[in-house]
Design goal:
By secondary structure, this protein is of the alpha+beta class. The chain is 29% helix and 17% strand. It is built from 14 helices and 18 strands. Strands 12-17-13-16-15-14 form a six-stranded antiparallel beta sheet, sandwiched between helices. Strand 9 and strand 10 (273-274) form a beta hairpin. Helix 1 packs across helix 7, helix 1 (20-33) packs across helix 13 and helix 2 crosses helix 13. The longest helix has 16 residues, at 218-233. The N and C termini lie far apart (54 Å). Residues 1-8 have low confidence and may be disordered. It comes from Rubritalea tangerina. It is an enzyme of class 4 (lyase). InterPro entries: FAD/NAD-bd_sf, Oleate_hydratase. GO terms for molecular function: oleate hydratase activity. Its EC number is 4.2.1.53.
Amino acid sequence: MNNTRHINDGAKIYLNGLGLGSIATAVYLVQKVGFEPKDIHIFEQNPEKDLVGGSCDASTKIIDGKPVYFMRGSRMYEDKVYCCTKELWSLIPYNDHESCLDDHERNREECKVDTVVRLLHANGEKDSGHNLGLGARESMEMARLMATPESLIPDDAKITDYFSDTFFETNYWYMWRALFAFQPWHSAVEMRRYMRLFFHRMSDMEKMTSLERTRYTNYHSLVLPALRLLDDKGVNIHYNTRITDVDFTGNEDQRWIKRLHIENREGVVLSPVEVQAQDRVFLTIGSIVSNHSFGSHHEPVSMSQKGPLGGAYLLWQKISSKQTGLGRPERFMRDVSLSKMMHFTVTFRGNLFERKFQWLVERQMGRQSPLPLTQSPWIMHVHTYRQPFFPAQATDSCVIWVSALGDHHSGEFIKKPMHECTGREILEELLGHLWPDIDEDEKVEILDTSHCIPCRLPYGISQFLPRAQGDRPPVVPKGSQNFALLGQFVEIPDGIVFTTEYSVRGAIIAIKELVDSSISPPPMYFGQHDPWTSLATAKAVIR
């Protein structure tokens, strides 16, 4: 069936939430398709702009008269893998003279990553990462997984099904985990997809010269400019409002969404939206930031679930119970112990931490790749940025973000699980790993002049859980006449979840199939087909 639509027939577009999938869809519709902005409606449950963007958010609050910064995620980029993301950036004005892509490219040239200290081992031992630690056995295991067709990988296969215990003690694994947040029990299919798409960067694992970051936070460099564009164009963003359920008509061969059920943030039911056959509905399903909880410098994160399940997950549960072929959300919520992660944002006052860290890694802030602390029981990875990281950040402050995958373990210096620790205690543990012999006066100064905000994400890495065919629905489900699914829990062949690229590519696919067939995502790049790339990778593996 030809789903191509004309853009001037009064059709309306409905989207749920201001996650990246919805934002990308709206931007493409306005900037590339030429869809009438006033006919696009986005329902966002949050009341404020600085709480949107999913894991690309960033916020500021005033504590004791001074700004404190925090966020729920931090995304990195690379030139060949993130082709959809960069195309999206090219469509968004950053200022009167530049697109977001223009600013990103300029920032990349101004602050190139060229890592010297790639890992930090026990007792502060530095490691350049030149030796990946891969022996003949581990190399063969990697080659075997990459060569195995995805169709031959069993349902629910784990990374541990393809790799021996020694693989998880290599420098390669430590660096890989710091970049992508994989755990040994995660999906072998997802591991294979990442290995194939990032094959061309294996030889750069040491220096990470290919790593790119936005000038400021992902929110300020991407989300906020996109929201300004949509506002200026006249897209209808309904804050404090969410889609709670939908009604379908038809059967699996031909089915439509005919009605959207709406309520406000306080749970007050609003008038439903009647969806006409020519309209289109794009629903984001699932969310890696659902049911997050923040702690503070003096309080640990809450371990109790805050309120009901997050809206995007709850909506997915409802629609999948009504219709076949819409995925199995329970598969990604089955065990929080396998899907959780923690992280924390630290605002440092004065320049003591910044000076000490730059001396430690032998690089300026922003020119260092994520730093794995390989002996940390909390499995901490330190992400540092060009400063200022927030646009209005004071010149005498420094902001970093640290991810952690082992919050249930007791710390090495703070003898209790990370999720039981205050932000100050978490920061003290970090300082102990960075500088085991830190001067006590310097330690106290950093602790007393900084503010650490921890965050717990129960479903932060749930998209990596082992899965079976059908657990993730296609972007446009079988028989759909007017609806598509977006986000990190749809199935995009060969695509890699936990990236902005996945959300943007899904949005482009949805538009191509339901709105304008002339719109297509850029092709994925697989460097293993280039002989010179394969030779460089082979040299990196055996050095």
